[in-house]
């Protein structure tokens, strides 16, 4: 049974810092790994999708990596801004469903 | 290209009542999945519909049921509401063929409160 864990549960850093969010999964037989952003009380915004055959994806200041052998994915945020404050969730695509971590709540202090 | 839209955005129901939530999938998408997200937790998979047929189901009781229509819009029905059903319900659509490496696009969700 696939399980997804995100560490840390919460993170508070000053504006401008580079930071890394971690996601681990127990079953390496995934089709892809997606990172999402969720603002308080809102739905989910897709940030990056890494297919199982890929090692990383980049979009602007965001870079996500995938290591299936170790069951890990990381989301790197460069030059953080207060607008990056949100909860970040990763989800492993296991056949027809997404299996989710509980998220990392990120606060960027001005 | 229209995105995924859900209605209503907020809903308050009494324990024991029934509720229907609606989702319009993104243009060109024929797969719809529903998730339940309790406060402070990650979403949990309820079920998926592909071409009007249920294509997979998570660990939810039968009182959670769904439909997909010919235009690929979908409904989530919950009978005999319980207090623990209070959550954000999210709908996601995916492109045709349910190719394995496709991105899921989410609506803004319906916040259901059961009192």
Structure characterization notes:
The complex is a heterodimer of chains A (110) and B (115). Chain A is mostly beta strands. Chain A starts with a strand and ends with a strand. Chain B is mostly beta strands and 115 residues long. Chain B has no helices and eleven strands. In chain B, 0% of the residues lie in helices and 50% in strands. Chains A and B meet through strand 4, strand 5, strand 9 and strand 10 of A and strand 5, strand 9 and strand 10 of B.
Can you count the helices of chain A?
A: 0
Number of strands of chain A: 11
What is the global morphology of chain B?
globular
Q: Name the pair of protein chains with the most residues at their interface, and give those residue counts.
A: A-B, 26 and 27 residues
The percent range for helix content of chain B is under 10%
* Radius of gyration over C-alpha positions of chain A, nearest whole angstrom: 13 Å
User: What pattern of helices and strands is seen along the backbone of chain B?
Assistant: EEEEEEEEEEE
Rg for CA atoms of chain B:
13 Å
The main sheet of chain B comes to: 7 strands, mixed
Strand content of chain B: over 45%
Please bin the fraction of helical residues of chain A. under 10%
Whole-Å distance between the termini of chain B?
38 Å
Give the number of helices of chain B.
Answer: 0
Backbone structural class of chain B: mainly beta
Tell me how many strands of chain B there are.
11
């Amino acid at each position: 049974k696939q399980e997804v864990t995100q560490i840390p549960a919460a993170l508070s850093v000053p504006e401008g810092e580079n930071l890394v969010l971690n996601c681990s999964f127990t079953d390496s037989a995934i089709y892809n790994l997606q990172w999402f952003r969720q603002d308080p009380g809102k739905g989910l915004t897709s940030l990056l999708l890494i297919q199982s055959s890929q090692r990383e994806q980049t979009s602007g200041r965001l870079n996500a990596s995938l290591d299936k052998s170790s069951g890990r994915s990381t989301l790197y945020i460069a030059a953080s801004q207060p607008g990056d404050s949100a909860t970040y969730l990763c989800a492993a695509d296991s056949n027809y469903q997404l299996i989710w971590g509980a998220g990392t709540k990120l606060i960027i202090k001005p | 290209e229209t995105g995924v839209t859900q209605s209503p955005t907020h809903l308050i129901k009494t324990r024991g009542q029934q509720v229907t939530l609606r989702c319009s999938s993104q243009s060109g998408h024929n797969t719809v999945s529903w998730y339940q997200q309790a406060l402070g937790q990650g979403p949990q998979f309820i079920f998926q519909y592909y071409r009007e047929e249920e294509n997979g189901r998570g660990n939810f009781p039968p009182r959670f049921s769904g439909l997909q229509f010919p235009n690929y819009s979908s409904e989530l029905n919950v009978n005999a509401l319980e207090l623990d059903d209070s959550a954000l319900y999210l709908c996601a659509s995916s492109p045709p063929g349910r190719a394995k490496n496709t991105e899921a696009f989410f609506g803004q969700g319906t916040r259901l409160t059961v009192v």
